[in-house]
Each structure stands twice: as structure tokens, then as C-alpha cells.
Specification:
The protein is an alpha+beta fold and 159 residues long. The protein has 3 helices and 7 strands. It is globular, with a radius of gyration of 16 Å. The model has no long low-confidence stretch (mean pLDDT 94).
């Protein structure tokens, strides 16, 4: 028997430390929270992707009274990017959440389903997707999706 250890590396930035290369993508994710259809939860999430071709693709959560028919912001954006730009890898994604009249102080992370979809996209292109998780008091950056889902399900498991 042996013990395995997995580590997740997260870079934490205070508001005045956020690198310029992330700021416009964070602003896009924040803007998307205004367009979310969150009539039931009042929890608005926005996501913004930067593609390898230079395009920015955005999304927000879309709720539905026939729960769980809604869709998270991350998957809304990633599915649109994959359908409209199937040959362009995702370089980074920024995620922001708004509830109770303000942006959250601490970052939120993607749900398990979104992590799996993001990981499949990362694997599909063989390129890391940098993850930017915005909060008003701190912002987290992870170098890739694998950092959030080290023991993931993948097609190799089916072979």
C-alpha cells in the first residue's frame, strides 16, 4: 500500500495586486452577472473566456423553473465557444458572482459538472486553461483545470 498526495496550487491576489492581463476578462465576467437569468436563486454568475484566436466569449447562469434544466455560466460560455470556434483552444476563464446586491468577497469555484466540461476542453486541445476566480477581497488564479479536478473521469478510463 502507498499513499498518494495531490497538491493544488492557487495564487491569491489582493484587489490592488491583480495583474493587468486578467483585469479585462474579470470585467467581462462581472458584466455578465447583470445579464444572468437568476430569477429563482438571485445568485448571478458571469464567465468570460479568452480564446487562443483572441476572441472573448461570455456566458452567465440561466435558471429554469423545471430545475435542473438551467445551466451554469461556465458551461454556457464553454459550450458556445466550442460550438462557434471549434478549432480555437480556451486560454483562460474568469468567473465572478453577484448576490445580495454586491459581488462576493471571496471567489466561487465552478461546480463539479463545470469542472468536468472545462477539463474535457483542456484535454481536447492539449492546452492548459488558466482559471481566474474573482472576489472583491481576493482573487484566485489556478494554472489549469487539473488543479481543481486531479482525479478526473476521462475517456482513458473506458479503454
Amino acid at each position: 500500500m502507498q499513499y498518494l498526495k495531490y497538491e493544488t496550487r492557487i495564487t491569491e491576489y489582493l484587489p490592488n495586486e491583480i495583474p493587468a492581463r486578467y483585469q479585462s476578462l474579470i470585467a467581462e465576467a462581472k458584466n455578465q452577472t447583470e445579464k444572468a437569468y437568476a430569477i429563482y436563486s438571485q445568485f448571478r454568475v458571469g464567465a468570460a473566456l479568452l480564446l487562443e484566436n483572441g476572441m472573448t466569449v461570455t456566458g452567465n447562469n440561466q435558471e429554469n423553473s423545471a430545475y435542473p434544466s438551467g445551466l451554469c455560466a461556465e458551461r454556457t460560455a464553454i459550450f458556445y465557444a466550442n460550438s462557434q470556434y471549434p478549432d480555437s483552444a480556451v486560454k483562460m476563464i474568469a468567473i465572478a458572482a453577484f448576490a445580495g446586491g454586491e459581488f462576493l468577497k471571496s471567489p466561487i469555484t465552478p461546480c463539479g459538472a463545470c469542472r468536468q466540461v472545462l477539463l474535457e476542453t483542456e484535454t481536447r486541445f492539449g492546452k492548459d486553461i488558466e482559471i481566474i476566480l474573482y472576489g472583491t477581497e481576493k482573487t484566485y488564479v489556478l494554472e489549469n483545470v487539473k488543479q481543481m479536478l486531479p482525479l478526473s473521469f476521462n475517456g482513458d478510463s473506458l479503454k
